[in-house]
């Protein structure tokens, strides 16, 4: 079945046509569901995940808004759980389940994986089945946050590079023939900025895929950690962790920042291991296993792996997930006024939460 026909079929089945469509971000076909603007192809995964995916209490779910360091976290978590093995780029739940006709065998693939499984998602936590997020029965969720200004700049570069390939693959034969030949979306930084700022306000309105970012972040990470903090859950049995920029404000037991250029990664990976239930032994620490994992998963190491130079994750080339990998690159692309404006939006949205970036 042609991609467009299959998509129409699914759209009819799931009554997507009743959801508000986006008109501004072609060639992406986005619809708004539960606040979030999602690619129709990925939106199809949501009912499939709800109906067939069976989480295990031992599962570790790595959740994030795109461009916040997911690839790095995936590598660290997988390498930690599997110690000496090489970190592959793990499949996202929604990509596996977002196939025409629902589960498309994805559940069988996941069911065959031995525990503990490391899974990844960009889906906002509010769109995941309750059996995954409920504290008593769900899996451990690690939500990674990043300075929004750096994530913003990163997403702009990705839109110009990686997203173009995705756009070409998803382009529908019946209406986007020209798109398949075209270069990346012709956004200027200014155009991107105005769209991004609007979507980051979490006020609704149309926005790029996965937006609004603030709502994603607040639901996915900050709230989980704050709720956990308020209930004073013991650090030994957390169900939600956060890798972000503010350990203190994020609450008891929250994970401290993991940054490529800071001395933090070793202690952060130790916390991550504890959180995932596979703490490093004293012997392992003495043997330098933690440092080895940090080194294995460093930007340079991952970027230079053959699989990341030539492989692809669906339509997106692995290499498009490795750009600069530094903190503060926003200052090379944003004026101080733009940065202040974005900071203010974020600050306002988080007011009273006790969390800040
Ligand atoms: P930049 O574009 O700022 O370089 P995601 O994996 O969520 O898509 O995020 C991609 C961002 O993480 C990119 O940021 C990428 O370069 C950076 N990144 C990928 N691997 C990394 C690593 N091992 N260490 C530090 N940053 C990394």
What are the SSEs and their pairings?
Layout: H1 3-13, E1 30-33, E2 36-39, H2 40-43, H3 45-52, E3 60-64, H4 70-81, H5 93-97, H6 106-112, E4 118-121, H7 130-133, E5 140-144, H8 148-160, H9 162-170, H10 189-200, H11 213-230, E6 240-243, H12 247-250, H13 265-275, H14 282-286, H15 289-296, H16 299-304, H17 306-310, E7 312-313, E8 316-317, H18 336-350
Parallel strand pairs: 3-4, 3-5, 5-6
Antiparallel strand pairs: 1-2, 7-8
Residues 64, 66-72, 150, 154, 157, 260, 297-299, 302, 321-325, 329 line the site of adenosine-3'-5'-diphosphate (A3P).
Quaternary assembly: single chain
Q: Tell me the distance between the termini.
A: 47 Å
What is the count of β-strands? 8
* Name of the CATH superfamily of the domain at 53-145 and 233-246 and 262-322: P-loop containing nucleotide triphosphate hydrolases
């Amino acid at each position: 079945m042609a991609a467009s026909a299959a998509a129409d079929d699914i759209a009819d089945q799931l009554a997507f046509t009743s959801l508000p469509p986006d008109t501004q971000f072609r060639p992406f076909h986005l619809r708004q569901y539960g606040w979030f603007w999602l690619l129709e192809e990925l939106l199809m995964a949501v009912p499939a995940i709800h109906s067939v995916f069976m989480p295990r209490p031992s599962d570790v779910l790595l959740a994030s808004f795109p461009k916040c360091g997911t690839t790095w976290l995936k590598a660290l978590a997988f390498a930690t759980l599997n110690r000496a093995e090489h970190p592959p780029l793990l499949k996202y739940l929604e990509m596996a389940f977002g196939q025409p006709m629902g589960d498309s065998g994805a559940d069988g693939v996941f069911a065959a994986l031995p525990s503990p499984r490391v899974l990844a998602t960009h889906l906002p936590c509010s769109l995941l089945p309750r059996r995954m997020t409920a504290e008593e029965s769900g899996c451990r969720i690690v939500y990674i946050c990043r300075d929004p200004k750096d994530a913003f700049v990163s997403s702009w570069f990705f839109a110009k590079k990686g997203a173009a390939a995705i756009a070409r693959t998803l382009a529908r034969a019946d209406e986007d023939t020209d798109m398949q030949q075209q270069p990346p979306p012709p956004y200027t930084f200014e155009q991107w900025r105005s769209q991004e700022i609007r979507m980051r306000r979490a006020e609704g309105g149309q926005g790029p895929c996965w937006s609004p970012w603030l709502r994603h972040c607040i639901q996915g990470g900050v709230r989980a950690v704050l709720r956990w903090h308020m209930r004073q859950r013991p650090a030994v049995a957390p169900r939600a962790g956060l890798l972000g920029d503010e350990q203190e404000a994020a609450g008891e037991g929250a994970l401290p920042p993991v940054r490529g250029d800071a001395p933090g990664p070793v202690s952060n990976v130790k916390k991550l291991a504890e959180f995932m239930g596979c703490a490093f032994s004293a012997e392992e620490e003495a043997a330098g296993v933690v440092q080895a994992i940090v080194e294995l998963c460093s930007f340079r190491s991952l970027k230079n792996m053959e699989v990341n130079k030539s492989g692809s994750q669906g339509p997106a080339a692995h290499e498009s997930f490795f750009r600069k990998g530094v903190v503060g690159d926003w200052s090379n692309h944003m004026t101080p006024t733009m940065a202040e404006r974005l900071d203010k939006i974020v600050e306002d949205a988080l007011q009273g939460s006790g969390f800040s970036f």
